[in-house]
Structure formats: C-alpha cells, structure tokens
C-alpha cells in the first residue's frame, strides 16, 4: 500500500511508521510552535511611521497578499491533500500545518491591527490589483478540480492532478512566491527597521521551510511509488507550471515596488525569484532553468536551512517549545 488512498478505515494505526520523513517533520513542527503576540510588534510603529510611502506600500502590499493566501493554502490542504493520502504520520503533519497556516493568518492580522494600515485597502488589493489577482486565479484553478469535481486517485490522471495541486501550492505558492515576499519583508531589518516584524517573519519562514520540505517529500514519494507518472510530457508540464509562475511573480513584483526602495527594486527581487525557482526545480529532479546567483545572500539561512538564528536580535528566533524534540533548541525567554 502506497501513500495515496482514500479509505476511511485505512491509516488508523500510527506505528509502525512507514514514512519517517513525515513523522520527523511533525515532531519538528510541534517543537517550533509559537504565537504572534509573543513579539512586541508595537515597538516597530515608530519605524513604520517614519518610512517612505513606497516602503509602507510594500508592507501593505505584502499583507494584502499573505493574509488571504494563508487561508487559501489551508483549503488546498483540507480539500486537495489530506483526503487523498492514508499515512497517519502525514495526516498528523498536515493537521499541524493547517494550524500553522491559521497562525500565520492571525500573525498578519496582528500586523494589520498594529501598524496604521488601511485594512480595506489591504483586503481589497488581492482582487483589485490585476497581478495579485492573477496569481490567486492560478492557484484557485488547481484546487477547483479537488473541490468541485471528484478526483479519482486510482487513475493516472487523478494522480497527476494530485501532483499538479502539490506543485501549485507547496512548490510555487509556498516555495517561490511566499519566499519572494519573505525576502522583501526581511529586507527592512537589514537596514535596522521593523526588527520585531522581522522576528515574526523569521518564525513564519521557519514554518514554511517545513511545509516546503513536506510537499517536496510527498511529491517525490508519489512519483517513486507510481512510476507510470514519470513521463517526459508530464515532467515538461510541471516545469512549465514553475516557469509560468516566475513570469507571474515578475509582474507582481513590478507592482509591489514600482519605483524601488533603498537597497531593493523589482529586478533585484525577480533575480531572487529565479534563483528560488532553480532550487525548487533541482529539488524536483530538473536542471536549473535560469542559472542566476542569489542576490540576497543574507537570506540563505532562511532559504536553505531549517534552523534560523537571528544575530540582529536579543531573542533567539530558533527557539523550540519542546527542547527535547531536537538537540540544540533553547526555550525563548
């Protein structure tokens, strides 16, 4: 029996664990548990008020994007992933991931409530701004097949749809588009601005790095267990999804930073997007497409490792709520 399956009576016994990577990620996710109000975001209000209009626009734009899309990811997990796998260790991880997406949504609400941001403008942007709406339409198109139609996971086409959905959400949305936004959000701390907001984003990134790792592992497991999916045509389709997503992100970033801010402009972000896309392509077994260097080498820790240590803060952002879950974790004061 493989990881795919829809039987209600299947997957009710956790041990012996079949997919150790899923259990390990669950244990790490539990150890990473945090709450947004642990961070004194109000201390950043003075920074926000003295920033330029363009800089405040960037923060508002990011909140406009992240807030609804964290909830969209939850729908993708609940309707497009959870019902189609039968390994209990994977279900445990997905349950924790869904809580984390909810926690991220509330974290961005905390930002909207703390900073002097026009909430209506922020909420409406994902509909009113064409480049942002286009990205959302791209994602919604994949999950509609899961929610409005019946997916037959026993067929090759059904399994391919399952993979398409994972690529759309785990690889593109969380692994490229979200990381692009994380880089912009964390760039302010590079200039000693919004340091507490930066700590909040550190914790979000740490969660998302596990989400990405789970999604990549799940895709590779399904492909390994179902070799009939490994056709040149399907591989080309998946690669095109990712390159199309890069083009959409480039347009979005032109709206995010139309004039640029200190140390950051759309071309800088888009080079980072292409760097991210190459990493994701390689993780899926493809050759890199863009062959660009990482312009934001200061993001390497967030992008390439699961542990974040923020040397700019008095707080160690890699704290773990359960130090026994893995070595080296320290409980935050």
**Superfamily at the CATH H level?**
Ribonucleotide Reductase, subunit A
What's the average pLDDT?
81
The dominant shape is: globular
Largest sheet: none
Per CATH, which architecture?
Answer: Orthogonal Bundle
Relative helix content: 55-70%
H/E series, N to C? HHHHHHHHHHH
Structural class: mainly alpha
Fold-level CATH name: Ribonucleotide Reductase, subunit A
Number of domains: 1
Number of separate helices = 11
Distance between the termini: 45 Å
Low-pLDDT runs: 302-319, 322-333
Radius of gyration: 20 Å
How many DSSP E strands?
Answer: 0
Q: Oligomer, anyone?
A: single chain
What is the CATH top level name?
Answer: Mainly Alpha
Strand content: under 5%
What does this structure look like?
Helices cover 65% and strands 0% of the residues. The protein starts with 19 loop residues before the first helix and ends in a 29-residue tail after the last helix. By secondary structure, it is mainly alpha-helical. It contains eleven helices and no strands. The protein is globular and about 60 Å long. Mean pLDDT is 81; it is low at 302-319 and 322-333.
């Amino acid at each position: 029996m493989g990881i795919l399956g829809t039987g209600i009576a299947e997957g009710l016994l956790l041990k012996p664990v079949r997919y150790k990577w899923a259990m390990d990620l669950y244990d790490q996710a539990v150890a990473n548990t945090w709450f947004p109000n642990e961070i004194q975001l109000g201390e950043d209000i003075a920074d926000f008020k003295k920033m330029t209009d363009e800089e405040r626009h960037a923060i508002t734009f990011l909140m406009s994007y992240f807030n609804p899309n964290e909830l969209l990811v939850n729908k993708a997990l609940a309707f497009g992933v959870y019902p189609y796998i039968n390994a209990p260790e994977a279900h445990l991880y997905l349950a924790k991931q869904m809580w984390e997406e909810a926690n991220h949504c509330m974290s961005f609400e905390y930002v909207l409530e703390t900073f002097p941001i026009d909430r209506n403008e922020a909420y409406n942007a994902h509909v009113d701004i064409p480049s942002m709406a286009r990205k959302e339409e791209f994602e919604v198109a994949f999950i509609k097949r899961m929610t409005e139609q019946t997916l037959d996971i026993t067929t090759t086409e059904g399994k391919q749809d399952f993979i398409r959905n994972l690529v759309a959400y785990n690889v593109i949305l969380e692994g490229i588009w979200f990381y692009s936004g994380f880089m912009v959000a964390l760039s302010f701390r590079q200039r000693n601005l919004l340091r507490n907001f930066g700590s909040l984003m550190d914790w979000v990134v740490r969660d998302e790095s596990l989400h990405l790792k789970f999604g990549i592992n799940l895709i590779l497991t399904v492909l390994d267990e179902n070799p009939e999916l490994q056709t040149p045509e399907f591989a080309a389709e998946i690669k095109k999804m990712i390159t199309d997503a890069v083009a959409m992100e480039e347009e979005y970033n032109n709206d995010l930073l139309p004039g640029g801010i200190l140390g950051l402009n759309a071309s800088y972000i888009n080079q980072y997007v292409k760097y991210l896309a190459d990493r994701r392509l390689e993780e899926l077994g493809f050759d890199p497409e863009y062959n660009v260097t990482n312009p934001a080498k200061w993001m390497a820790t967030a992008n390439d490792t699961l542990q974040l240590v923020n040397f700019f803060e008095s707080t160690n952002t890699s704290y773990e709520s359960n130090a026994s879950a893995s070595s080296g974790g320290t409980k935050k004061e």
